[in-house]
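Sorry to interrupt, but I need a hand with the structure work. I would like you to pick a protein and set down its sequence and fold. Please put the record directly below this note.
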Amino acid sequence: MKIFRWAGLIALPFVVVLTGYFLVEIELSPTPALAAANSVTFPPLDQLKHYTTVRRGIKREHMLTSPEALIALKAGQPVPTGTHMVLVDYQSDVLTRYLIGQKIGDGDNEWEYQWFWPDGSVKADENVARCYSCHRSRQSEQFMFTFDGAISDDDLL
């Protein structure tokens, strides 16, 4: 009888550790992220203006938006509702994706984001909530990391 009690006491830590391991595994297992159904549309790229290029290693990111948005930004005004901010992403000179922010309402913080493949289709497993979580740190700059490029006096228009 005493042997069984000691064996149970000795086994108890192992049971706790194993149970904790499986609970943690279940709790921390990644879940598939799906592209949020939102209002972002793929813009007519030929109607947008290039305003800056960001280079990082093998990446080259061309930034585009509408002429109306650039005028508003330079005047210190909010961009019009419906404005697209487009990052055209090239890696090793190959077009890999379009990251698009679109102002969907009249409020300053009413932006939604979407990732599109080069063919214009949505990347269905992208977690676009991550976009807003970073861009909200730039609220005073119209949620743009490239605000300075947009308001510069360079003749990119």
